[in-house]
Amino acid sequence: MDAPVSTDFDNPRRLLRQLFDAALAAADPARCVPPALAGLEPPGPGGRLIVIGAGKASAAMARAVEMHWPGPLTGLVVTRYGHGVPCERITIVEAAHPVPDAAGEAAAGRMLGLLHGLTAADRVLALISGGGSALLAAPAAGVTLAQKRALTSALLASGASIAEINCVRKHLSAIKGGRLAAAAWPAPVLTLAISDVPGDDPAVIASGPTVGDPGTAADALAVLDAYRIALDPALRERLAGGELETPKPGDPRLAGSDFRLVASPRQMLEAAAAEARRLGVAPLILGDALEGEAREVGKLLAGIAQSCGRHGFPAKKPCVLLSGGETTVTLGTAGGRGGRNSEFLLGLALALDGAPGIYALAADTDGIDGSEDNAGAFVDAGTRQRGRLAGLELPAALAAHDAWGFFAGTGDLLVTGPTLTNVNDFRAILVV
Description:
CATH architecture of the largest domain: 3-Layer(aba) Sandwich
Number of strands: 12
Radius of gyration: 22 Å
């Protein structure tokens, strides 16, 4: 093992960015997809290889397939606006995220058309990553895109977890919850997935379009009722009657479907930890599936960081606390600008209140935190004071969910542009 490099901590932001870049590199489709292609059987006599996919990383995954699969192929993947990359044989379509649009609906219809009439000699390669739930917008029969958009917006603002949101999405879809693989039957389907969800559950990643759904329509109704989200009476009746039920594990149409995880939040955190050790900083991975209200998670991790600084527990400084997962932001009536990582940092900075020797970066690994142009932001001992000099107060920004406005004013935004991967949130708190 190489000896740690000498680190003087004069530029903690650069160090934190190095950790973030190491995490992204571990989830780069060009790196993690090619080895998994060894498990893809070529088509049988007269058969074809059809490549389909959806998610923020799907276009980059498609390019990796084109560069490393020697035989003929054709296909279609849909990714978020701005996340496309050039491909020669696989059509790349861009659509809206997190609220679906007509482009996503049209792409989903085209994808289902590609799978129509396949045989056992054909092979289907599905490239799935986070964001696919919104991008594969094929409403179930009798459900409109407007209804799906309204329900998605309400769920995103409610504070529901990604698993709860996807449970509802699956039961209002013609393509999610195993229906995509069922449409390809009897052709075998190999899914290569990059996980962005806590626990890496295949049924939750992009709402599990190629795996059986253990949830039920009754579960979807329970989510909507728990968050007091209004539902059209006719749609409620169809869910309650089981008309919109999804294919379940053990469905014979899914017997030829194989699922392989090629990158995950845990892997990206382990890569960041290895880089920290190389830089002479002791890493402590707190977990890859942290959930909860973003500001409250920020408050909790502030306490752990301060304990490290004051008492050397649970880690002695210099150390870095690493975590992943997906927090939530309950907007209520406040509109706000920003995302969950930036809001986490507001909560962290407020709890730290200028404590010296603590620096943090939090960002979405897809490069877009919420709906603005930043991946996340930085926090240090001077954050609150820089805000005041700009006429901004931390408590007010937190109350208004205006994390983007606050960090734009302090000059602390982290802007990377689309990273072409997605393994959820990355948080690093450096204590020196």
